[in-house]
Amino acid sequence: MTTPRVLDGSSAGGQFLRTALALSVLENEPVRLENVRGDRPDPGLAHQHLAALETITHVCDADVSGDELGAETIEFEPGLETDSDRTGRGRLGGGEYEINIGTAGSVTLLFETLLPLATALESPLSVTVTGGTDVAWSPPLDYLRYVKLPLLRRFGLAAACEIDRRGFYPAGGGRATLQLAPSDLERVDLVDRGPIEGLRVYSTESASLAERDVAHRQAEGALERLGRDAEPDLEERCETTAESACPGSALVVRLDHGTGVAGFSALGERGTPAERVGEDTADAATRFLEGSAPVDRHMADQLLVVLAVAGGRVRIPAVTDHVETGCTLLEEFGIDVDRERDGETTVVSVPSPLTGKR
C-alpha cells in the first residue's frame, strides 16, 4: 500500500467515514482513518458502517485493513485503474451487488456513501441492501427518494431508489436498491430560495398499524399544523401501508420552492400519538419557512461532498458540528472551502472542486 493520507475522526461520526471513503475513491488515493467515530459513545465501526466499508471495497476492488466490528483504525486503498483522460483519477466499473447489513442498520446511510461515485462510473451500478430503511439517527428512505435524489438530479446525478419492503427498528429486514448511472455533475448554485411551489407529504405505516390508521393520522397532523402556511391547491399526499418485520411508521414532508426542495422527517415512537409525529415534522418545516436558506439543516452537511465534486455555493441554515467536521475533511483533501456568514445563514462555497483541482 502506498503512503496513505491520514485522517483523524476523533471529533466526528459516521458521516466523516462515509465522505472520506468516497473522496478516497474519487481521488484514487489511499487513506488511513484513525479514531473512527471517535466522538460517539460507542466508537469504531458498527454494523452499518462496516457494511458501507465492505460495499465500497467490493465496488472499487480496494485493499482494506481494519474491516471488522469495533475497529477504530482503517486503511483503505482503492484498486482502480488510472484514467489519463480524467487527470489521473480512477475508472470505476459498475455491476450488481447485494449487501445484508445484518441488523436494522441504516440502508440510506450506506447509499449515501455510494452516491458521489456516480461521477467516476463507466457503467451502471446497482446495489441492493437489506437492513433498516426507516430507523433513528438517519434519514428515512422516503427522504432519500423524494427529497435528496430529486434535488441532486437537478445538478446532473443519474440515480434512482426502489424499495421492496420496509425495515423498522429493531428487526430491520427492509430491502431497497440504489441504481446509479455515470454522471457529470453541474456546478451547484443554491443561494437563493424562490417562492413555495408545492407541499408533499409521504406517510408510511407498517401493516400491523393499519387498523389504527397511523399513516393517515400522521399526514393529517402535519397538514393541519401547516394549514396557515400552505395553500390547499399546492398539497399532495401519499399514504402507504407496507409489510414489515416489526411495527413502525415514518413521515416525510417535502417543500418545493423556486430553486430546489427541502425535507423534514420523523419516525413514529411507542407512546407518541401519530398526530404529534406530524405536528413535530410540520414545526420543523415552519422553522425552515421562517428563514431564507434553500436547503434544510440535514441536507446542509450532505451536500458538502457534492460541492467537493462539482463546486458551487450553498446557503445553509446553520453551521452544525456535522458541517464543521465535513468542511475540515474537505480541506484535508486539499479542497478550499469558504464559509461566509450572512445574517442568520452561512454561504458555503467551493470555488475549485476535485474536477478542476489539477
TrEMBL record:
Major place of residence: cytoplasm
A GO CC annotation given for this chain: cytoplasm
Residues annotated as domain RNA 3'-terminal phosphate cyclase insert: 191-289
Broadest EC class assigned to this enzyme: ligase
Positions annotated to bind ATP: H298, M299, A300, D301, Q302
Gene Ontology molecular function, alphabetical: ATP binding; RNA-3'-phosphate cyclase activity
Locations listed in the record: Cytoplasm
The reaction(s) this protein catalyses: a 3'-end 3'-phospho-ribonucleotide-RNA + ATP = a 3'-end 2',3'-cyclophospho-ribonucleotide-RNA + AMP + diphosphate
Record-listed E.C. numbers: 6.5.1.4
One Pfam short name: RTC
GO-annotated biological processes: RNA processing
Task performed by this protein: Catalyzes the conversion of 3'-phosphate to a 2',3'-cyclic phosphodiester at the end of RNA. The mechanism of action of the enzyme occurs in 3 steps: (A) adenylation of the enzyme by ATP; (B) transfer of adenylate to an RNA-N3'P to produce RNA-N3'PP5'A; (C) and attack of the adjacent 2'-hydroxyl on the 3'-phosphorus in the diester linkage to produce the cyclic end product. The biological role of this enzyme is unknown but it is likely to function in some aspects of cellular RNA processing.
Family: Belongs to the RNA 3'-terminal cyclase family. Type 1 subfamily.
Cross-referenced HAMAP family: RTC
Protein name: RNA 3'-terminal phosphate cyclase
Native source organism of the sequence: Haloarchaeobius amylolyticus
Gene name tied to this protein: rtcA
